[in-house]
Every structure is written in structure tokens, then in C-alpha cells.
Protein 1
Amino acid sequence: MTATMMTATSGKTTCPYCGVGCGVNLTLPYSANEAVPPVSGDLEHPANFGRLCVKGSSLAQTIQSDDRLLTPMVGGHPVAWESAIKTVSAKIAQVVKDHGPDAFAFYLSGQILTEDYYVANKLAKGFIGTANVDTNSRLCMASAVVGYKRAFGSDTVPCNYEDLELCDLLIMVGSNAAWTHPILYQRIAAAKKQRPNMKVVVIDPRETATCDISDLHLAIKPGSDAAIFSFLLSDSVQAGILDQGFVTNHTNGFKAALAQANESTPSLSLTADFCGVSEQDLASLVDWWRDTAKTITFYSQGVNQSSSGVDKCNAIINCHLATGRIGKEGAGPFSITGQPNAMGGREVGGLANQLAAHMDFATPGAQDLVQRFWQAPNMATKDGLKAVDLFQAMEEGKVKVVWIMSTNPMVSLPDTAQVRRALEKCELVIVSDCKAHTDTTVMADVLFPATGWSEKDGTVTNSERRISRQRGLLPAPGEAKHDWWAICEVAKSLGFQSAFSYQSIHEIFAEHAALSAFENNGRRDFDIGHFSQISKAEYDALIPVQWPVPEGRPEGTKRMFEDGRFFTPDGRARFIGITPSFPKSRASQEWPFTLNTGRVRDQWHTMTRTGDAASLAKHTAQPYVEIHPKDAKRLAIKDKALVRLTSPYGEALLKAKVSRAVALGNVFAPIHWTQQFANASVVSNLIPQVVDPLSGQPESKHAQVRLEAVGGICYGLIISAVPLVLSDCLYWCQVPSEQGYHYEVVWPSGQTQASLKLIDVGQSQDLAEKAEWLEYSNPITQQIRLAKLVDQKLTLLIYSHPQPESLVADWLISKLAINTSLSAQDRLAILVGIPANLEDKGDIVCSCYQIGSKQIEKAVTSGVCSVDGLGARLKCGTNCGSCLPELKRFIPTVAELSV
Amino acid sequence: MPSLISQSEKRRLVIVGAGMAGSKLAHDFEKAHGDEYQIVLIGEESRVGYNRIMLSSLLANDISDTEMPLVDTQKMQENGVDIVSNDPAIKVDSKNKTILLASGKSIIYDQLVLATGSRASVLPIHGSSAPNVMGFRTWSDVDVMTQLDDRRSVCIIGGGLLGLEAAVGLVKRGHKVVVFHRSSWLLNRQLDEESAELLLNRLEQMGIEFRLGESPESFLQTDDGRVSHVVCKKGEKLSVDLVVMAAGISPEIALAKSAGLKTDRAILVNEQMQTSHVDVFALGECCEFDRQTFGLVAPIWTQINVLMKVLVGKEAAFVVEPTPTKLKVSGVNLFSIGKIQPSEEDSCILFKDVSANHYRKLVVNGGLLVGAILYGNVADGSWYFQLIQNKTNVSNMLDLLVFGEAYCCPQVA
């Protein structure tokens, strides 16, 4: 297998970032030592047709990492795979024997592939006997899943990406797609440009980049979204746009839902008031909704990450059902997932409240069906623990072994302090990752080195139900292995040889496909029976296809519910009565600010991949908190200054970004920075473990916090040839850089040249006596700047100043170049931070006024014909006169002049 | 000689002293007012009108004789300026408005300008008047030094600008040079200790030996009166062939005194450069204004400009401004201006790149730059000079000020 990978020169694969699931062309270098050339977008992939966003475009830069986990580790020591697997399986066997199967849990990820997910789910639910299989998808779209299931009887995304281009009204709720799903956003923007009558409405408490193309932005009170859709339902009846035939023939529960809507949102004015928007703006949306049959409601984390996320989803779906705007071109409720394979995880049943293949424990006959298919000895019989509950059970000592795969719960789950306590309490923490150092790997007892993107082989499903191949084009480094392989080895070691003896990845996919079709007969939405006999060659050649792909329908399915038939027992969709509610935690005197969380354009999740690409740090280098100018002024917080956010659960230090994009009393912080990149900026420290009671999805977009300016500090910049441990810093952030190490720091004030010179003591290999220091000190501005040179080459640069400054460090970092001695100009400029755009004066002739030969020649060319004239023009020679002889030589003789 | 006391209809301007100040005044004044004035320039040296500043360069062989003239004396004479050389003025009869020269000639003036300059101060050490003890002021001093045989031992007394320039010139000519300097660091009026250290290292690399914080105790003389040894404090005796006194200059005011002009350290002048006698003016190193004397060329050029006007009855006033100092040693760049030893209310902005011999110190007070030392890279010296001269408020560029003009005024660069 490795051999064929090595001979391939390029291949098509799928981007590992957001749920858009773009096709990527990856070209391999000629030899293993060369860097992988930049990737390009796959022109044939229906998600992106060749486009790639900046994160995707930078994928090649993230392939080489200095921080790969290359060997299994047990208790901090490298061991052979065989030994590590034995350690793990022995412990699992012991806790299952002593405490029952629910003492074991998987905590998986929307980044692993469908096949990895499938075998993990199979092992836990059919062989160990626990449904404790949850995933970071819980944090992402669990509410959307439950919303679909309540309405449709199945977790079915009705729409496709083309619908986004074909609709006449696009309502984007709780989504900053411009940054989080850039290619979809580009497709929408292009469609809108072509058809300017297409309306785009953004519903979001913040003014985001997505608002750039919007015709209307409703800056609602955080969490109030459901009220808008509750009112749209009522209004649809009032306005006479109800699709009576569809409601009558294809739905249940309309009357009750309408009554609840009428009661919850009796008027436009009360709804506008509830949401904190103007009646006029809400009326615009209502008018457009009334007039536009081709409407898509596009929603993401802003809807899902809520204590009432499921209700919000159903409030949206209700409106589409009532108007029959579903199952049609350019219409439908469209949940957009955040992760590359959250959908694949849902398909195999890789969530604690699912069984397998879109069947639940509660689905009649499902347990028996799956048990027979798997020939499972130990079927789980009930829902397992959802993410937050799982970690709470871990802290309570109920879950004793957890296997975490490709995710970073120390940063992504709410209340990091609780997560830490849970992992500390857990008897065996197994972490599979491709990175050696994450906030979660430091908590592990056993580390399994995993293959990463471009090495992993399997399938993923994007937000429009499209299954694509991620292809293993590069060899696995070190001892890294595919996740499915590690799971199967543990399963075999536990005694389940026959059920986990796959020879190749396509066998797993085929089994997954076979299960989806097993006794299905059109009863279950997820059916990819066409692939149940797939060969390796066919699997390797798989072209992206939208499920369902049942036997006999290889072209797949573009759009769902076109026939108005749903997957409930009676085939009718269900209206769900909704009462809009606000988030659980409310502002108080002690915790006056509402914290919203989200993403920046060029980072992905916890930066374990994107953090390797220096270019991606250019857009946003440091963690920040967005704060309204009036709030900032009141709290004496200056732009770029360090701010302490405190909640009842913990604190975080972030740089202020004063902006009107957030409303008064609200703040916003991106979630990406881990302790690998910044010592004190983990935003999940602040988030309560409040979840939606139905989906278990945390209300991560809402926390109550206190803000304060941090005093008694000075700000600094450090650029070092070697990584530094910055123990004296109150705050540090490592900004990914092309070379060397770039830190933005904050010290307690009172730093001196002497104290700063000690920063790399014991950390750098430079001999102290070989070091030359360049020093700048300014008592007026309280600046200190130091540069350390060894053999005339820059190895360390330290800037300290009392006010936050923003220097573009790229140029300084470029001066770390290994083989370059610094020029005289640069020796000054590295303490300025910018290169001087110095005029080339030529050789200095007049040293009093520093006038150079080139300036004099220029003056002579322009007509100056005497030394006095030069003096009048340039001042040269008018002080000490010692250059007068030289100046004379520049003046052409009379004879020459006359010629 | 009758021609010198000719009965020309023109007014007579007599300038005593044909050094830089006198020569340039004569030159510029002739250009401006040659039609109405008969100008007489009297010099004691055989060569007049040369650029004294270049003596160090001449000594160091950086330039040749042909590059020495400051003004074109031949052309001046063609234009009617009477130039008398090698004939010092010895007496002023202000009553009869007549100058008596050593040769016995007497010259009548309507207006008289004294530009008698200064002489090297002679330290009160026994033997200072020995034939091989000299100053470093004139072209003929350079002649003496350039005619020294190879590999002589020279002792220079004074580590100021002149002493160091002499030392470099002599060491370049292959002589063994020891410099005595009374202060604990070189150029103590122009540099601080750190920048002086950089300079010291550089000059030591060139082969000059230094005795800092030390003056010679005495000279040992041979029978013929020549100094053979310099005796140091601890009794150590250094064998020498030549002693160069460069421990400061004394304004040359003997003539003025004899004429009864008011003097202090030098000839007292008002802001019109006028002495206590109404038609007598003084200029350059021999004058004293507002308790200051002048050793650098810049203020003297300003004085010339003032005199150019005053002599023809126009209004002008001399104002003292800070003047930058440089050391004319090729390969050594330093620049010093204004207040360089800060007092308590001043702040010092520092840039140090010791291994690259680059040092900058700016003294700032109340938003104004008041002093600067640059060593190694002096490109911004003139800009700092302008900031001081123009009293430019630098408050909004304090964070970049020490890095120079290119950073503070990028549109200018």
C-alpha cells in the first residue's frame, strides 16, 4: 500500500476543515525530503468546483509538523504498539469486568473518518456493550440532529448547495459563513451578484463579515432567534401563505404548534421587542418571507449551541413545513455542519443517543437488527452519556477509561476546570492524535500516534450529504497508524477477532453500507446499499455522491422529501410547539457582560493543524475579546490592551478589540487558542456546562462574565531562534511564524534591561560570551529593546513598552534567517521594528550635512553649476568647508558646460 | 610702501589675520563690496587663505597641498585685495587709524577687523619652550611633523579633537605616539564615558597609546635644550623625539591689548562684533561674546555674515547657537552637539551596539532635544543639529527619535 502511495504523483482528496467538504488536489513531492507543493481546489468536486478558502489553500504548509506524535507512549515513555494495545485492552477488560461496560467511553471527533467512527461505534455498542460513544460533534450540531429527527423522524438534511444558489431569499441564522464556511459563502455571494434580486438576511447578535452581502442584518439579543421563526409561523397563516395541502397531507401537529406560536409571539411589535430589533427591520424580513417561496434558512452553531437549540431548529423547520418550502429547488431548512465529517459520524451512529446507521435505541426492532448484523455478543441497550454528562460521570468516578480520538476537550468542552478534574480522576486516559503536544495529550496516560490528513484513508460526508474520499497519499510517519487500525487491534486484543479483522479500509465501508441497507426497504433515510459490495478499486475511485445511494440508484440523491414523505412511522412530518426562551445564564451585577464565542477566518478549531501555517496567523495573530467602545471607555480598556475575563468557572486573558460589531453589554471571543499557543487565553474556561436538555449540546455561545483592564503591566514582543519557556510572563501568545519563534507577551511592569536579558538563559545553546547585545532604552517612553547576536546573526529580540503596540513582526522574523549576517542598517532597524526606506545617498561627501555623492550628482544634473549653488541647494560645504575640494570635482568645467 | 597707503577714494577695510576667518571675510566682502572698499588682508604666516581645518587631513596624508586653499588668493588679488603675508601686525594706532606691521609698513584703515585667531596653550611644564615642543595650529606645524624622520617617538599632550587628530596623523606616518589626557576619558567635552570607550578602542587599534587621567610631570632636556624624555607621575620616563601641545588654545589678543581694546579671555565684542573701539571689530577665535569664545567654524561663519552687514551699516546681530563637533579622523565617525552631560531634569535616550561601534545618546528636556552624541554612524547628526537649532518639538517622535531621520520623517528620506 505504501509503495503505491509513493509512486502516485498526485491525487484527489477532501479538505479536513469545515463541513463544506471541498475537493482538494494534492501533489506529492518527488522525494520524501521535499516539501509538499501547495494544494489546489478540485475543479470536479461539486462542493467547491476548484475554489479553496485560505485555510484549505494552506493545507500543504500544515503537512510537515515539528510536533508529530510518532510512537505510542505509555506513562510518558515510548513503547511498541503491541505493548500499548495490551495495556489498553487489559485495562478496558478489567474495568468492564469490575464496573460494567459503562465504565468505558469513547470521545470521538468530527475529524475522524466514517470508517474510524464505524469500528469505534461497533466495538463500544456491540462488543463492549456501552453506548458511551460521544463526540465533539455534540458541540457542533447535536441540536440540529435532534431538530431534524423530531420533525422528520430522521436526521436528514433536505437541501443541497445548489439550493443556496437557486433560492430567492436566504436567511442566515447564527452563522458567520464568510469566515466559517468560506466557499459556500463565496458561492452565495456569486449567486447574489448574478441575481441582485436575491435577498440575504443575517440574523446574528454580532455584525460579522457575513453581513457584507446582506440586505438586512437583524442584530438580535443573544439567543432570541426562535421568536423570529415563531412569529413567521403565525404570520404565514395571517398572510395566507400557508401551504394547506402540504400541511394537511404531509404533517401532524400544526394546530398545536400554531397556537403555541400565536401565544408566544402574538405581534410583530412584541416579537421585535423580545429580539431587540426594530419593528421596521423585522417587518422587512416578514415581507420578504411572505413574498418568497424559494427561501432557505441556513443555520449553524449560533442556533445549535444553545440551551434551547433544538427548539430553535424546530421553530425554523415549522416555518418551512407550514409553507411547504421543503423538498423543492431553492427551499428548505439547511443546517450547516462545522466539521469535515460530523455528518459521517451521524451516519454510523457515532453519538451516545444513536445506535447505528441512523437507527436509535428507541427505534422499534433496531437493537435486534443491529445485533444480528454485527453478530454482537454484548449489545448496548440504552443511550450512553452525552459529552458534558460523560465528563461529569468521569469526575464522579463512573467512567474509568476514556479513549479520546482526534479532539481536544480541554479546550473545546465548556468549563475546562471540570474537564481537567474529570481527566485527572479517570483511571486510564487514552488519546489518539497526530500531535504530540495538545492541551489534552498532556492529560493522557496512553498516547496513540495517529495518521493525519493526507495519510488517512477513508470517507467523509459534507453538509449536503455528499460522501467523498479522503485519500491516504503520503506515507505515515514514524509509528503512526490509522485510527481504525488501532481500534480494531484493541478489539481483537479484547477477544473480538472475527468482527474486527478487516484487511483493508474498503471492507469497513462496505460493511457500513451493508448495515445501512440491512432490512431497510426504504424505511430509513440513510441507505447506501449500492456500496455494500464495493471493491477496493471501486472504493479508491469513488466519486463524490450524495446519499441515499440505495441499491440501484448509484447516482445518489440530490434533494430529500421531494415526495412529501418523511421517515416518521406514519410518513408525516411533525410540527413541534415552541416557546422561545433566552439563554440560561443571565446578566447580573456580578457578571454583567454576555460573552459570545466563535471563530476567526483563518484558524480551525484548536489550531492543531492551522497553527502550523504561519501565513494563517497573519489575519489574527492573538486571541482577543471584542468589546463595544462605550463599555471599553467605561472600564478604561484601550484597544489592544490586555483584559481579564472572569466567570464563575474560570478566567481568561485576552487582548481587547474595541469594535461596534458587538452590542453594548456584549463581548465576543474566538475559541481557538490553547495553552500550546497562549498561556492564559482558553475561552472554554469561562463557559458553563449548560446544555440543551434534548440534544445535550452545550450553550457555548453564551456565558456571563466580568471584564477588567489589567494594570501594572508592560507589553512585549519576543522573537527567538529557539522555543522559550516564558515563566515570568503574565500573558504570552506564540504566533506561528515562518521561522523561529514569535511571542507576544505581557510582563508585570518594572522590567529592566538586565532582567530581560535573562529570558533565554538555560534555553538557548548560545555561549554567553559570544553574544553581542544591541540595546535601546528610552526612559521617556519607557521602551526597552534588546537584540542578541551570535556571530553577527540575530538569535533573540526583545521589545518592551508600556502601551500595547502592534508591530508587524514579519520583517523582524525574516532577520532570524540562519545564514545572514545583519547589515549595518539592519542592526539599527531591528530595534526599530521596521526597515528604513533609506534613500541611497551614495558616498558621503559633506559629513556636516551628510550629503552624498548621488545627491550631488543629481543636483548637478538638474543644473547646479557651482559649489556655492550646491551649498544653496543641499547645504553641503557650507559648514566646515572641508568638503569644498571634493565638491569642486563634481562641477563640470566651463569648457564642458559650453559644449 | 606707498601703494598700501594709497589715496584711493575707496573706504579702507583692514583685516588683521589671514586665517580662515580673516581670509573668508576678505573674500566674501570683496565680492559684495569690492567696488566701494579697498580691502587689505594681513597675515603672519607665509601661506594665507588656507583651510586650517584640513591640516589634520593633510598630516594624515588624506589630502594633498593642492586641496588646502579655502579661498582663491590669486583671484582676490586680481580683484584688488591687498594681501600681505609673512608680516604680522605689531601695533594698532587707533587714534590715527593706522596699523604697524613687523616689516615697518604702516597701513591706514577706516574700519579694522581683528581676526588674530589663537595659539596652542602651553602647559606650565619646565621645558615647554624647548625647540622640539610644538603646537598644532599652522601649515608650518604640519611641515615640521611631515618632515620628521621615520619611527620617531612623539608625545601628544591633550586628548581633545586636535590632539587626537595629530596623534592619528603621526601614527599613520609611522611614528610611535603616546597621548596624555588629563581627564579619565577622551574628548571629555564632546563624549560621554561609553562613547569615549568606543573611540579609545578604535584609536588603540590604530596603534596609539594612551595615558588617561594623566599629565606629564616634567620634561627631561638634553644639553642642547631639546626634550629627551617625558616624566610620568610614577616616575616612569618615556623617551621622546617630539612633544605636541594640544591641551587647548589661547586666543591671540596681544595686539588688541596693546591697542587698548577691552579684553577678558579674548577680545570683547558686542552682537555686531564690535570691540570697545567704534571702528574696530573682532572675529573668530580671538573674540569673546557673551562670555564665550569660539573654536569651531560654524559660529565664525555666522560672525562673518553679521560683519558683512554691520561693516556697511546694515543691521545684523550675532546669536550663539549650538555647534556640532566632529573628529576628522578617517574611519572614525563621531558627532557631538549641545548638552551631553544630562542634569536631573533631562532624560537620556540610548542606543548601543557596542560590537558594531555604534552608539547614540540623545538628551531630551521638556519635548526638546538639547544634546546628542553619535558614535560610529553619524548620518543623523545634521538632522539632530537642526532639531536643536530650530528648537523643534520632538514630543511626538520620542519613540523613534534615536533611530534617526529616516524613521521619524520617512517622507524626507
Note: The first strand of chain A starts at residue 10 and ends at 14.
Protein 2
Amino acid sequence: MLEIKDVNVHFSSAGAVGAVEDFSLTLEPRSKTVLIGESGSGKSVLLLSLLRLLPATAQITGSVLLGGVDLFRLKESELEKIRGDRISYIPQGGGNGLNPLLKIGLQVGEPLMEHRGYPKKKAVEASIQLLRRFRLGREETWIKAYPHMLSGGMRQRAMIAMGVAAGSRVILADEPTKGLDSDRIQRVVECFRELREETLLCVTHDIHFAQAVGQQIVVMYAAQQLEIAPNGEFFANPLHPYSQAILRAMPENGLECSVGFAPPHDVYASRGCRFSDRCPYKTPRCEEAVPPMLDRNGHKVRCWKYAD
Amino acid sequence: MLIEAKHIQKTYKNSRGIRVEAVKDASLRLEEGQTVGLLGSSGSGKSTIGQMLVGQFPPDRGEILYRGQPLKYPYRGAERREIQILYQHPEVSFNPRLTLYSSMIEPYRLMKRRVDREVLIEDIRQFGLYAEHLDRFPGELSGGELQRAALARILVMEPRMIVLDEPTSMLDVISQAQVIQILRRVQETHHTGYLFITHNETLCKAFSQRVYTISEGVVSER
């Protein structure tokens, strides 16, 4: 189990508003959670903060408990032993997280060398099985290739194989389908469905991917969580006006632009609900105080509309 | 007819020296005020067609007509200004070492239009951009903000036609809908023609009046 409690991330250069504010979430073993929201809402910063991969200018508070151990309290040397072994991070960018100078087999097998003491030859051999699990095809050939020789989708699948190589049971993935075409997205979806034993926390802009992979959907906006709901409940009955706007903006729903542009950044700090400037249901109360996260039978929403 | 490509072809050598026929046979046409989709998967040759239409390089064979006249590479004069492109990755349109303000004033100078900070703040508001964005570098803006800035910059050039090369594939759905809404608004006012290159069939149908498909370098109309 991964328990994220009251995580706050603040960059000293970013003024009064934090990059992530009071983020709490419990990830049960083998659960699949997808985090959606627009660019700059804090999703990627949250993922990086969990493994303390942010630059030194980030001030991070709260706790992240993995099997009862708080990752925020560990020494860097202790955390290095956990990264890639018990919890892995797959960066965004169509597999651009791969080292362009190293062959695929060595990179996919590297966690086995690092955490399981495999010699290089055995690790590279093991990478064939890992890549086969995610149906790369012609695995014996591709382990000898450099990243630029693979398509974006293949690089992404190699990154997933690398993430689970040493047996990590918690996978953090950032935008795994970004920039891929629909055929390649489908293959990445199949790879994530293959992760039956692993716990997944995945950030995405791709609503179809979220629907296909996530058991639980979390919506973030301007550093805060606005809604947390089981997949079926979220897509059938989204509660927050922002979540409703996201679904209406999808091409199959007519690309409807029911909310305006985000206001200037300094507006956030002086208002109650962060979304109030764009919300069609705004009342005076929305500008007075930030709404609490309300629990409606397991469907959580941060909106004054549901407070009474 | 705004622009018409007649049987254009393009072959190039890849990094290993192997000849690749990126575009084998492409014919398409676009009227003023129309959005035409070009739908295809990665590597099908769709971006190569867009780059030829905007004059980044010439076709090996075939010809491109603009308002009935054959275009000669390199483009000069009006066609160079009137045919613009919006890329999938907006960061390629901006110098990473210049603030947004410095990048945004460039097209005003090319068009010999008066510009200062106040003018710019007024002009960019309709794109959801504010004074606070002008002092930031491209890397400090979100994908949606930077793509809207790229579009705002192109529109200063008063284009007649824009090649939209996957302009929303890196954006969240709300940012995507916002960019499409701006494009529709511009088209209604200025009758701009769009060639909308995408791999997303649902989006292509929702935004385009006509759709071409491309597969292995060959274009056909649906």
C-alpha cells in the first residue's frame, strides 16, 4: 500500500500559490489510479515529489508511506535502494527517458544489475523476457538496438518493462501516451492492463486512456484535488463542474468549450475556490473560502454545490 | 481555390543513407474558409506534405498551386507570409533564450505594426494569456499556453492558410477545445483555410468539413 498524506510542494520562485497543496490519497495494493487535469495543475510535480526527484528549490512537506516507511524521512542513500526496486517512475516523453547512448537490453536489464546483483550478460538476457511480456516483438533484435531506432510506442513499452524489471510493485507513470497515435496508444493500454500485480499511479491528459486503465480517477486543478471517484461513477456522473467541462470538451462530445481560460495566476491566491473564475455555477460563497473535500458515498468532490 | 497540390512526391535519405519515399502520390485541394483534415498514422507522410505546402522544402515531383498560380521554392513575398504552419510541439516555434515578450513582438515588426507592452497585453488576452506570461521563457509556460502563444504570433501575419500539424496532440482536452475554438473564430472572421493534420479520427471528423487519408505516402479522399 502507498499512502500519500497532506503532501505540499512549493517552489520558492512561484509566489504564494503552491505547485501541490494538501494532496492525500491511499493506493491499495494492485489498484490502478489515474490522475487527470490540465497542464500546470501539479500532476507531474506530485509524481516527482513522491520519489524526491524535484530540484532543490522545491520545499516538500507531508508524508509518503510505502509499507509503513515514510519516503520523505529516508536518507538519499536509503531512497536510492527503493527507487527502481520497490517503486518505479516512468517519465513522460514517449520513452525519451531512455539513455540514447545505451542499447535497449542493457537499459531494461539495468534495475536487475542495480538491485538484484545480476551480471551484465544475465541482465541483458532477462530483458528479452521482460520485453516479451509487453509484446515488443523481435525482442532478441531490439535488445541490441539504440532508443532512436525504436518508435515512440516501442520506447514507451521498453520503459514500462524497465519499470517492472526488478519487481517494483508500485509504478508511477507520467503521460505514457503523450504524442502517440491511436494504434500505439492501444498497445500501451494493453501493457498497463498487463500490470495485474502492480499498484499504478499514472498521470495523463488522455481521457480515453484514463477510462481504459484507471479504476480510480483523481482530478487535479491549480495544485488541488477536486474530485476522486471510481472509474464508472466518474464517467457516468462527474460531480465537479471542472470534471464535467473536461468530458464535454472531448471531440466525441463536440469539443465544447464550456469554461473560459484560466485566470492570471495571482487571482488564485486571493480567492476561495480555485475554479470559481471559470465556473458556470459560481455563488458568492465560492469566492469566500476554499471548499472542503466532501465524501458522497466514496465519491469525493471539492465543491460548495454539494455542501448542503 | 486557395491551394492545390497535384501529385506531389518526396523522397529523402534517412540517417543510414537509405532512400525513403515519404510521400509517393499526394493530391489535395483547399478552399478559402474551409478546414480539410489529413488523417494518417505516425510515419505515413502527412507532416512531410504539410512542410511542402508551407515551402519548407520543395516536392521532388508534382506541383503546388496557390490561388491558381504555381508556387516556386523558396517562397517569396505574399505567399511566404500568407501560408503559415502551427507545429505539434509549440516550443520549436520559440527561441528558448527569449522571453515570450521578445518572441511575440517579432511578427509585429515584420508587419511594420506598432507594438509595445500595452498593445501586446491587449492582443493576447483573447488567447487566455496575460501580462504575467510575457516575462516568462518558453520552458516556463504550459503546453496549452505556449501553443496559444504560437497561434497568436502566427495570426499577426494575417495568414490566408494555416497548416495545423497535430497542434493539439500534446494538450489536455480543455486546452485542445480552446485552441479549436480560437481557430474556428479566426476562420469565421477572416475565412482562413486550414489543413488539419492529425492521427485522431474523432477529432478530425469533429473539426474538418472534408477528410483526406494518407497511408504509406499515398493520399486519398474519403
Note: Chain A touches chain B at residues 36-40, 151-152, 178-184, 205, 207, 245-246, 249-252, 254-257, 259-262, 264-266 (CB under 8 Å).
Protein 3
Amino acid sequence: MIYGLLFFEFFKIGLFALGGGLVTVPFLFDLTTRYSWFTSEQLVNMIAVAESSPGPIGVNMATYAGFKVAGISGALTATTGLVFPSVVIIIIIAALLDKFKQTTFFQNLMFTIRPAVIALILNAGVELGKLALNGIEAIAFCAIFWGAIHFFKLHPILYMILGGILGIALKL
Amino acid sequence: MSILWNLFATFFKIGMFTFGGGYAMIPLLQAELVGKKKWTTDEEIMDYYSIGQCTPGIIAVNVATFIGYKIKGIVGAVTATVGIVAPSVIIIIALANIINIYMENQYVAHAFAGIRIVVIALIVDVIIGMWKKAVGSVLQGCIFVVSLLGLIWLGVSPVAVVLTAAVIGLAVRR
């Protein structure tokens, strides 16, 4: 029974949380008022954890809540519930896209959408910058890294590992 | 290496190093899927993000599902999705009981401060790389500027930005 409930509640979040990222937070907060799966304080901690662990916050929260309620199988149930609706929807859209992507209609649509996507990517960078670029030292660090990324073109993961090591060494 | 295992392993790797939300994943998608595997293109990544932004669910998962489907149909879509989600599931289960200790660890905090700064530099480089493919005309330049102003200063939702750009596309170019 608890598995059904976990699946159902996270399925609803997966279906109605439009836009990703922190939009799942109000839905998760709503869960704290109806169930004792996790407290609102744990939710706040989890938002902080999401900044210091990989992966989407919605997935992290579903896993955490499911694990607290019913162990590893609970974690898997809640996470499956969360991603299930979007996987079905995207598969349907992807199948349609196969037919339409060569049409002038689709190409015209994407002609004006792509510059908006660049703005979205830059906006994500700005949001992250508000959190991370908290002083002249951080900004200089970022500029030096950009130079290294742009001119050496190594794998992003290498730069991230290096950034983590330097973060510890320089106490950023 | 079978294609499904390859899909799973690739998205597992991407999921493990995605810090800072769905858009922060783009440098990894570019390096792994456009550069190394040639499974997709910069243009397609932009298209998947615009659709993933306007459909329910987590954007990083939506994009993984899209690319998985392109490579190997429904089975591929599910495989890529499981791959991208698996690292977070494993890490959170491992950390669930020690989350407070983990959060208060100074080394973790410093490491992630460093990683976040690198992610910003990676995002800047992605934008420079994609710029020519997305902004090649006055109309596209205007859409970029107006979208950015709306997002940063007016707090317009990303969904509204994509839909507005779509309407302009349909109105101006027939």
C-alpha cells in the first residue's frame, strides 16, 4: 500500500511540475503537510544537498523520501513514479518529432526558439553565478578556468575535478 | 560494447557530474554526445531543451529520454533515463542517514564551491560555441536580447519565453 501511495504522489509531481529544477519544491512542501514522510526542515536541507550533490533536486527528494518511508525499494518506487509521466510524454513527442523535424514548419519554429534557448542557458549561468561568484577571487578563478576550457578543450569532467581540488586547496 | 550498455554508461557518467541543474548538464552532453559519440548535434540539443522545458517533468531527464529515443527507440529512451537518474539515487541512498554530517563537512563545501565556479565557465563556453548556430540574423538577435531581459529582470518563466519565441517564429516566417 505504501508503495502505491509513494508512486502515486510522486507521479503527480512528475506530471504537474512544469519547467524542472526548483518548481518541484512547492509540490514537495505540500507533501510535508499531508504525510509524515519528511519534514519541511528536511526539505530545506535537501535543497542545500542538491547544490552539493549531482542530479536533479526532484529526483534527490523522491529518493530521499522513498528511502525514509520504505528503504531502498521505497526510494526506487518514488523515483520511478516521478520520472514515469515525463518518460511517456517525451517518447510520444520524440516519435512525432521523427516525422516533423524535416518540415519547414518545424525548422521555422526552431529558428526563433533556438536564440531563446541560448538566453535560457545564459540565465541558468547567471543564477548559478549569484550563488558561486561571491567575490573577486571567485570571478578571477572563473575567468582563468574559462580560458583553459576554451583553449585546451579537454573533457568538462577534468575541469570539474580540478575545480573541486582547487576549491579545497584554496578554501573557496 | 552493445549500444544499450553504451547509452546507459554514457548517461550514468553525465548524471554523476551534473551539478547545478538541467542546463548545467549541457557541457557534458556536448562533450560526450556531440563530440565523442556523434549521437546528436548542438542544434538538436537546443531543440530538446526547448521542448523539455515546456513539457512536464525534470528537464535533465526529459533531454536524456529524447536522446535515448533517437538512438534506440523506446528501449533506448528508458535506458538513458535510468542511466541519468541512477547516480543521484545511489548517492542519496548512501547519504540518507548521514546527510547532516555530509552537509557540515568543510571539504565538501569547498570542493563544491570550486566545482560551481567551473560549471559557470563551462556554461559560458557552451554559449560561445552555440551562438553562431542559434543567433545568425537580426530577428534572432532581438529574440535573444528580449528573452534574456525578460528572464533576468522581469522574472518571466522559461516556459513563457519559449512559447513566445515559438509564436514569433510562426507569425514572422511562413
Note: Residues 59-95 of chain B form the longest helix (37 residues).
